[in-house]
Please model this.
Amino acid sequence: MRIACPKSVPIRKQKDFMQTQYVHIALDERSYAIAIGVGLLGEAATFGEGAGSAQALVVTNETVAPLYADALVRTLAQRHARVHVLALPDGEAHKRWEILNLIFDALLAHGADRKTTLYALGGGVVGDMTGFAAACYMRGVPFVQVPTTLLAQVDSSVGGKTAINHPQGKNMIGAFYQPLLVVCDLDVLKTLPARELSAGLAEVIKYGPIADMAFFDWVETNMAALRACDAVALAHAVKRSCEIKAAVVGADERETGLRAVLNFGHTFGHAIEAGLGYGQWLHGEAVGAGMVMAAELSCALGLVDAAFVQRLTDLIAAAGLPVRGPVIDAADNAGRYLALMRVDKKAEAGEIRFVVIDGPGRAAVRSVPDELVRSVIDRCCAS
Ligand code: NAD
Ligand code: GLY
Model:
């Protein structure tokens, strides 16, 4: 299926690329804006005019807090009488119940009420956990995403998927819960380690094969600029990625169909993350190798040709990402992948459903015989 994308709406000062641009995500009463620009952490107006709730809690982590929490707190102090900060331990391995509970502990300790606003300042781990906490606390309090990784700016902060992991499966416990606003300040990407930037590029690359081959061409041409953290290139990558994601989520918020295409490469990728232990491979790295496997599967089904698979593989490698999956079980690697993939949220009655590329720029969801999947895993994993 082809995805028609709405135009993004540059609301303010259109003089140059660095002026704040807005992508709108249309979900009736849950609609919101994604602001993309520079210096936004220090710009109170970006977070809304007038006074906000009396209290706010900024949830961040021990790495991001020393870099950006003070700046955000100063800005939010113009909207909220009291702004508290909670820094969680850093890492995918902490995306779990016990750490989630620290957010509830902090909210209760501060006497937070139903109007208290949560701000997620961090990457996808902080964003997913804060969103889930916001969905649960007093059955739902407002929250704002302030994503600080490329991956979070182009994907996880947008669309309202919130979750924690279970040892048996990635993001298995969660809720659909939309933020009020997403603020993507491109400046914060300057402190992002190169490996994390590459991980974010996996999700940028994803949007091409599933929805927009012109964007894929653009990413190919601009890969060096993106890896060099060029602000113009990053601004376009974030904006176009958000436009595509906004169109998909606007059409299928709760993943009854179309939204599954955003999981291209993720079925294999989630198996890698759970199979190796959360945090061993970054999410974006697992998605990178997972997209190669999903493309090989599409080729084996006759949906794309080998040249397409090679082109995608080359782009993933150019982003600094692995293109071969890890061996997660020396005795029966493909069997272990298959067992983990049966826990995937797209699985139905134990049958795994894969996002495949049904011709460049178009994705579909298919069930595939185990033997074919096994042969792809055998071919695509490092020995
Ligand atoms: P992450 O949140 O672990 O952040 C990566 C690392 O970068 C962390 O160590 C973090 O502390 C650090 N960091 C963050 N911002 C920084 C900055 N500006 N400067 C320096 N260091 C910084 O990982 P991620 O890649 O952002 O997110 C991955 C998570 O997102 C996974 O849990 C994945 O499941 C989830 N995800 C969710 C969705 C969704 O739709 N909700 C989509 C994609 C991924
Ligand atoms: N990252 C997949 C989704 O938001 O649906």
About this structure: Confidence is low (pLDDT under 50) at residues 4-15. Residues 155, 159, 161, 259, 262-263 surround glycine (ligand 2) (CB under 6 Å).
